[in-house]
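Example 9 (inverse folding). The structure is encoded as follows.
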């Protein structure tokens, strides 16, 4: 059974949190409420989240300050943040949101369908990354011979697991490439393009790690270093 992704909703107004839950309930994921920046940071200490929807205007610790704390933590720095704001102070205010580490900056009132579509993309990427990490961990256990045969993999040799993982990664790479082309065609905003580029860099890193697990990769690297 596939575990649901968690989405963190941060807003000091209960009615806004209720509205967000109504919009995102169709995604059938786990929605976690936080009524302040401090409460959000506490939730991030124990749980992993696919994406954070963060209100800018909050008493005490505002959205910008909360985002700064999130980006300083190694555990949470890569979680996508979508800023939500009821006010618009112009380009400088928007730039401050992106500078704080947001992948998007949406002014209220926003189109519910657009917000749901944006969030669903990050949920899908999160789920695929989790799946790839699990497969990579399983593969390492098999190759190192230290963990025995994992559940569901009794009949698969390491080479077979490697091929399966490579095929799954290739599928994600293909989807990422299609997404990048779509962003180019639609003249998307800089935040969306930057997010796609970040995803491509992550996939490149995963591909390199996978290639390093190929039989003979270690010896080939050793020979290369000796020449």
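The amino acid assigned to each position is listed next.
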């Amino acid at each position: 059974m596939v575990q649901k992704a968690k989405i963190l909703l941060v807003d000091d107004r209960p009615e806004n949190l209720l509205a967000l839950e109504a919009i995102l309930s169709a995604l059938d994921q786990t929605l976690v409420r936080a009524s302040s920046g401090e409460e959000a940071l506490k939730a991030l200490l124990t749980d992993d989240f696919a994406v954070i929807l963060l209100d800018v205007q909050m008493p005490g610790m505002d959205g910008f300050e909360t985002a700064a704390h999130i980006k300083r933590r190694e555990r949470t720095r890569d979680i996508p943040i979508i800023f939500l704001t009821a006010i618009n102070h112009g380009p400088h205010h928007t730039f401050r949101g992106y500078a704080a580490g947001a992948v998007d900056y949406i002014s209220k009132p926003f189109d519910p369908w657009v917000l749901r579509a944006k969030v669903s993309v990050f949920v899908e990427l999160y789920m695929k990354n989790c799946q790839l990490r699990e497969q990579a961990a399983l593969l390492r256990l098999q190759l190192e011979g230290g963990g025995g045969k994992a559940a569901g993999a009794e009949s698969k040799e390491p080479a077979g697991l490697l091929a399966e993982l490579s095929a799954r990664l290739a599928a994600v790479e293909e989807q990422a490439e299609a997404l990048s082309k779509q962003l180019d065609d639609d003249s998307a905003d800089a935040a969306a393009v930057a997010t796609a580029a970040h995803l491509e860099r992550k996939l490149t890193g995963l591909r390199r790690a996978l290639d390093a697990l190929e039989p003979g990769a270690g010896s080939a690297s050793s020979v290369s270093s000796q020449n």
